[in-house]
Amino acid sequence: MSQPAGSFADLRARVLSGVVMAAVGISAIWAGGLIFTALVALLVGLMVYELLRMLDPDKRLSGTQARAFAAGVWLFASATVMPEVLRVPALLLPILIFIPTVPRDRVVFALYMALILFAGLGLILLREDFGLAWVLWLVALVIGSDVAGYFAGRIFGGPKLWPRVSPKKTWSGTVAGWALAVLIGAGFMGVLGAGVGLIVVSVLVAMAGQAGDIAESAIKRHAGVKDSSTLIPGHGGVLDRFDAMIASAALVFVLATLGLLG
């Protein structure tokens, strides 16, 4: 009888954690400003912490918490205090400082930390410069394509997308995510005042999210861990929950910088 009880206990933890995360996230997105910036900076710090821990299995790196906290604070300062022209170059500084201290896989660390930091800045600027509706569009794309992929993969099955790295992902689920991205892009065109190009952008953002999920899975497999951490009860780590979001947000940041968003 202990097996079912354990399963239900895990389900309860997942549901409660999910409700809390959704409530906090929606409230911060709605509020915007320093509240949203502070939440993004906190999440970035936690993700940097998990990345450092995964790439340091022997725990040889001291001061991991301090480094992660510094990364989050630096992102907050970059987004709120620094002149716009210095924001992007400023984010390279903590990466360059941290690289010599990482015991192994320094290229992986540098690239993935850059992805985390620029995604964080992208989310902050998307809310600040484009508004609430654009953030909701991004969230809808990431969650929607993930849910569509989950159910389509289990209903239709079929060939695996990349079994060595992510054995549960199928081509049917991947294509379903793209299809839903088309619908979400079309549905947001009127809300955002965007042209038909938003549909293409939506599919690209969904693809980026799927790639982000696979990239984090590859890092976990390389590090020999199941989850990035146990910070979120029933869910694993912050990276486990936001791997798709950071890749999608980073792409949105690039597109916005190039004037191609929408």
**Spans where pLDDT lies below 50 across 5 or more residues:** 1-9
Q: In what range is the share of β-strand residues?
A: under 5%
Give the termini separation: 54 Å
- Tally the helices: what do you get? 9
Number of strands: 2
Helix percent band: over 70%
Overall spatial form: globular
What's the average pLDDT? 87
Write a concise keyword list for the protein shown above.
mainly alpha, single chain, 3% strand, 262 residues, 77% helix, two-stranded antiparallel ribbon
Give a description of the structure.
With 262 residues, the chain is mainly alpha-helical. Helices cover 77% and strands 3% of the residues. The protein has helices at residues 2-31, 33-54, 64-80, 84-98, 106-130, 132-156, 171-192, 197-223, 238-257, and strands at residues 160-162, 166-170. Strand 1 (160-162) and strand 2 (166-170) form a beta hairpin.
Summarize the structure.
By secondary structure, the protein is mainly alpha-helical.
Topology:
Layout (H helix, E strand, L loop, with lengths): L1 H30 L1 H22 L9 H17 L3 H15 L7 H25 L1 H25 L3 E3 L3 E5 H22 L4 H27 L14 H20 L5
Antiparallel strand pairs: 1-2
Helix pairs in contact: 1-2, 2-3, 2-5, 3-4, 3-5, 4-5, 5-6, 5-9, 6-7, 6-8, 7-8, 8-9
